[in-house]
Records
---
Amino acid sequence: MQSKTSVVKNSPASSAFTILRVSVGIVYFWFGALKFFQGLSPAEQLAMQTIHKITFGLINDHVNIIMLASWECIVGLLLMIRKWIKPALVLLFLHMICTFTPFIFFPNQTFNVAPYGLSLIGQYIVKNIIIVAAGLVLWKIETQKSAIGDRTTRPSEYKDLIPAISVKGHSPKEYSAKQSSVNN
């Protein structure tokens, strides 16, 4: 017989959070790794122009792109291996703020017809809204896990994180009560 703990641990919602965290990590790591090799990243030129503008040209463009590549790879790696998730998410949010600055600095590159006709570069930037949303979901999960007091949430605690889990048409609480009556 399955216990409440194993039902909740194997729930689709708990797996979805893991998939979300790992997939954002993969995207970050992949996009960052491309920037280590000149000419591979389609965002390389825009990234260098943007960082040049943000840093007032005080740092060499090649150094900037290597720092950005390292930043993205670190965020991705931390998310994939589930270490220091909140600090990784802070870095992710800071990065995301910077990714939207080309709309201010380079509107001629980001819009075909401002403010609604995005260029391909503008579309590439706007898709980051999805990464921000994913980051917010992960932040909320990490905050709730911290409130519970355990950084490595035990499966039985997912019920506090995900109140609407259903298993075969029943909530974990109902399922557990039915299992108890079967075992007695």
Note: DSSP finds eleven helices and two strands in the chain.
---
Amino acid sequence: MGNASGLGDVDDCTCAVGARWCARADALFGVTGMHVLDVAGDERGWLLLTVETDQTVAGCPSCGVVATGHGRRVHRVHGAPCFVASTVLVWRKRVWRCPEPGCPIQTFSETHDLVAPRAKLTTRAVCWATDALTHDDTTVSALARHLGVDWHTLWDAVEVEATTPPATVARAGRADVTPPEAPPSAATEDAEQ
């Protein structure tokens, strides 16, 4: 049974010993298809969220044959700050194996809109930083410090976000954000007068 906010059934919490996922933690995380397995802090005061997807079947991207599970690998990626703490997602990314002998791809990793392949920042963190640079009086250095990353790591991601047309930007978990409109150019203003 869901609730009016669309966050799922937080009344039926599965945060019990032996339970796979916790509905309340998933509701706070708010990313469709990803679930929180563990929440911990580290010596720096950072929040570590161990997450995984609920994907149980995948087709080979090359030949389309249904793949079989081949274990998991950890992909650590920085997310938007949570409760004023730098947040690191520890994604237990599923690895798939193509059983088709003639297929050129033997193994491949699952994907999710929240984390681009080989990314260091989540799309949510990049949107958070881009929105802050657009609307707040802040710097890339200050935002990088909040995210727990180097200036160059953040700037590389923000530059791509800022120069990509809004319709093509993947904004996982950010359906509520609409990109700011560009201010009218002087030529447009002159033509309107």
Note: The beta strands are 34-41, 47-53, 68-82, 85-97, 107-109.
---
Amino acid sequence: MPPRRGRKVAGAVVTRRGWILFLAMSVIWGCPYLLIRIAVREISPATLIFLRTAPAALILLPLALHRRALSGLLVRWRWLVAFTLAELAVPWFFVGRAEIHLTSSVTGLLVASVPLVGAVLYRALGDDDFSRRRIAGLLIGFAGVAALVGVDLRGADVGPVLEVLVPAVGYAIGPLIVARKLDDLAGIGVITASLCIASVLYAPYAATHLPGSVSPEVVAAVAGLALVCTALAFVLFFELIVEVGPARSTVITYVNPAVAILLGVVVLGEPLTGGLVLGFPLILLGSWLATAPPSPSPASNPLAAEPPSA
């Protein structure tokens, strides 16, 4: 975890640096859906994961070593692998598969329902109670998902929609594993090790399924995913945690889908449909109502409060 000097206490005014980090993360973690949509036109989802995780791991590894953030990981290797599967290896594969058929806008908005899945999961495990506010949030949020699916998607899109549900569950499980089993470990160490594990898992497939040639557009998309949306994003995310605290940092969860929709419409020319217009505010409002605690208490490990990142 980054040094805690200069960390702002709860309730303090957010600094200019905090706002810059917040805006940067809101944009950076709203971009992956656009870049994945471009990349999977020519690269298989499994190969894309290797090309994304391997460079990011190589970049973050020296930083993690310098901060001595890898200590204690080996004895928790089982939970580290479980976190990798839940947060990176499995979700990114299914997001890539889904985006072969779904627009980046729709995928980004469906993944935004993660807080709703998390609220149900944590209640089922006895980690949380359902107040009237949270029940209302779940009803509103799932109504937004139903509006999006019902208005915009056809029967042929049911498979890809179900594939997006897999990342939604994974992104809900990942922070739970951190909170219960990896909470005392350095966040940058956990994510670096997870990227290494994911790259090793997908290396054999990627080695035999590299495309013969790719367009400059796809090369740029893969580079953006690896260098900006993964390596740089996690460095900035931990800096954001230090600057504003875990509770405030999760607000980017509600901005990322707007960025994903805007980029899909403006850059890729995706239609701004009635389902998006109706589902977007319902899903975000429902997620906020279903997950906002009465009095936020910061998680000791930033990854336990990490927003979903495709």
Note: Residues 2 and 178 are 17 Å apart (CA to CA).
---
Amino acid sequence: MTASAIPGDMDLALDDSMDLLDVTDLRSIDVHTSDGVTLAARLFAPRRDAVGAVIIVPAMGVPQRFYEAFARWLAQQHFYVLTFDYRGMGLSKQGPLGKLDADIFTWAERDTAAAVEALMARAGDLPLTWVGHSLGGQIIPFVPNGTRAAKIVTIATGSGYWRHNSPALRRKVLLLWFGAVPLTTPLFGYFPGRRLGMVGDLPRGVVQQWRRWCLHAEYAVGVEDGARERFAAVRTPIVSFSFTDDEMMSERSIATMHGFYTGAPKAMHRFRPTELGVKRVGHFGFFRPEMELPLWQSHVSAELVRKHDFTLRS
């Protein structure tokens, strides 16, 4: 399991009183996909000359507003930043979810690809950094223009195979995959995760494909034709941030997921909260405002501009 799996009552809200205008120029923009769908996105533009561009690719069931504080901080570091919601999610939801025909490939091939194009249309030839949270770090091989990224930064990204989930989560996911999803999705036409306290509401095609992945030992690679080759074809350097107190991703799941990227050089960073001087990070804490000093300034800032000479590791 990945992303905002359980519990569904995870507080993803940020303080609405935070002043965005003191940091960056912020605009809400429409992103148009190749199949005619309009997505909601937000563009954070630095007030001084930009040094690069960053796209934040969200986790499963997590709205773009959750990434607002991090996006604002990146703009302070002179990056163009784009956040967006997949179709059917957050501000991109249009009409009844039960009528939406979409799966994870749709989110990758159509939605994320369109978001990359929208960002680069504004950033021009500036180098692009891909920041993927959980699912956002898994779908890179399925995004046609993902190769435009000069660097990939994955946050709490691991394989969703249920036996590799953190011990505390394994028993709960059995209820999700063998009870809640197969029973409620046909009944409602979508997965009503919000009322069940699991993940959040998801399109039928998304949750059904995700279930197939999570029940296979090799996750998407073991389910989708050609996926192994797609992962191996990624050559972009990857920097991984993971945390020992992640309530969803075990160390094994993190290693397995990044092991699929056999052609990409990788730098794996795994932290205990005590190393950062905080009580908890977990699966979501990286993006919270209080992580600016212990994580963003202390560890992420250097990675955004560093040119790695690390060796290829599988």
Note: The radius of gyration is 18 Å.
